[in-house]
From TrEMBL:
Residues 62-138 form the DUF4333 domain. It comes from Rhodococcus pyridinivorans AK37. The keyword Transmembrane applies. This is DUF4333 domain-containing protein. The chain crosses the membrane at residues 50-72. Residues 1-44 are annotated as: Disordered. Residues 20-30 have a biased composition (Low complexity). It comes from the Bacteria.
Length: 146
């Protein structure tokens, strides 16, 4: 009679016996060796330089955009100060009696030769004045009310 065989006598892969060298356990895909404690790295390359490079590029583009707006956008007149200055010129230089409600378009560029029109009430009558920028420092002249 034969004796009973134990599981270690004749190892059959996947049935509790010892695995032959290099064999994979049942259900495990072949060639999926992982680094301890994490997912496999792709060719040992990190994504960190790409992330830092992208963030750096965003910062540089933001700075360039701000500088371009500042440099090429140019200066604009302060609308409230300009309106107050026009009222003063009309009363002191042109001898207008009552000057009120001066309305000028906003965001007028400070550029020598640039002109624009403002609406003004002089002695309770609606008038218009032409404002011309005379230099790049924001100096302007006010024409006679029409």
């Amino acid at each position: 009679m034969g004796r009973a065989r134990s599981a270690t006598d004749a190892a059959v892969p996947g049935w509790g016996g010892q695995q032959p060298a290099g064999a994979q356990p049942w259900g495990a895909p072949a060639n999926t060796w992982q680094q301890p404690g994490g997912a496999p790295q792709q060719n040992g390359k990190s994504k960190l330089p790409w992330i830092l490079g992208g963030a750096g590029l965003v910062v540089v583009l933001a700075i360039v955009g701000i500088l371009a707006t500042t440099i090429f956008g140019g200066k604009v007149l302060d609308t409230e100060s300009t309106q107050a200055g026009i009222a003063k010129v009309l009363t002191e230089s042109y001898g207008a009696g009552q000057v009120g409600d001066v309305q000028c378009p906003s965001d007028q560029k400070v550029e020598a030769g640039h002109s624009f029109t403002c609406a003004v009430t002089v002695d309770d009558q609606f008038r218009e004045v032409t404002v011309t920028i005379t230099d790049d420092n924001g100096t302007y002249e006010v024409g006679r009310p029409n």
